[in-house]
Give the backbone structure.
Amino acid sequence: MLIRRTADILPSEITPPDVYRSRRNFLAQAGGLTAAAALPMASAHAATAFGPLAASPLSTTETPTSRRAVTTYNNFYELGTDKSDPAENIHRLKPSPWTLRIEGLVNKPRSLGIDELLKLVPPEERIYRMRCVEGWSMVIPWVGIPLGSLLKLVEPQGSAKYVEFVSHYDRATMTRGVLDWPYTEGLRLDEARHPLTILAVGLYGEVLPVQNGAPVRLVVPWKYGFKGAKSLVAIRFVERQPVTAWMKAGPSEYGFYANVNPDVDHPRWSQATERRIGEFTKRKTLMLNGYSDQVGSLYAGMDLRRFY
Amino acid sequence: MTPSNPQLTAIKAALFLACLLPAGLLWQGFEADSLGANPIEAITRSLGEWTLRFLLITLAVTPLRKYTGWHWIVRLRRTLGLFAFAYGVAHLMSYVWLDQFFDWPAIAKDILKRPFITVGFAALVLMIPLAATSSNFAIRRLGGRKWQSLHRAIYPIAMLGCLHFWWLVKKDITEPLVYSVILAALLGVRMWWREQERRRQLAGAYLPQTPKFKGKVIKIFSE
């Protein structure tokens, strides 16, 4: 049985991606032709299910992967271990109503729903490269909020050094075994605060589909995709480095950092190249997934072979 | 029930077409763009799984024959074995061509450095002499006994195939486990027969001239 979530927007009101993309292209071109003063904000905004979204200088200009591929080729083991499974099992996760807890070593812990979250920090469009540890990649136009802005609001205590992310898990409807549930991930506090790190609530200008981690998920574009824990129920500030679900599953294969690195192979396969979904030949994988300029300094002096 | 020669020819032709079906469906899926977001992975993976399936089907012929008494099915075994080889070659080609696009240094590195590729490649190389000696001429030339011992290489080949799949998956080992259990059953039944045979021979060894005795044979050794 398909349980439909009550949308807070009519499907007819949602602008199809191809329409808003062409609008955006038009606006961008118009913005280029007209003096900046004549169209002050037009080129930076586009109409979406979230209202006008601010574009970000952190977005890539590469062509996004098709919406169909982004929403049918997913690793979301709670909804099945084949990549086509999650899109077929969306009824197993009900993304509304939802509560996200922010807890641990913070002065102002709080629980909040998605609407509240979006009122606290306005969503932006972030077009990011996504590199999976399995050797494929995509370009995904996320809608998300900078995690750092949210972290500031809860006032982390001085002893908080790491942030742990916990995904929703319901034993009755979701995959049993395979990993030690619930799925957990972690970041160093400075990684969590980095402007590139976002909590995604949508993609292609629309509400985040269940198979992509609805209603809210982590996106850390310079790390392998599995760091982006889906369907988050808790963000926890802790003192010690958390042990993540994949570290428990294979400590020799998956480390805490999981930074995209063409020079550090997975023990069983090379990470030097990747297949961009939709392309025929492989491309070279870039250090830190091409975000070295922005995040390289986070790892200055660290041996990334040891801290993989 | 033993089919007549024309019937067997028809069965062989039907089997040949059936064996081509997975490849045909894969081609159709590629043309129709219905293989998902990563068709190259889907093709490579499917060809590999069919290689393993054909190996297991080939290994199932002898047990099926023994338990059903359909001795004629052994005459289908060569087709099944050769299709296992053909799918294996296609699987390797899809890796070399579609996946790596003839990047020979990367391929050589993979074969040497990645245990799962090493064992898969070894399995395919081991299949070459078997495919090469599949003709009636080769069987006659080698002699039945030699031919048979050479073709027992299918046992390690199938084991390497299962291991190749097992080491490839990231975490969910359900599928390789299913193939491995089936293989274990197919090899286990052979070990059981061999043990039975050994016992029979052992029992017989103490009665070297059994045929000479008339009347009741008295066992003087108990096992």
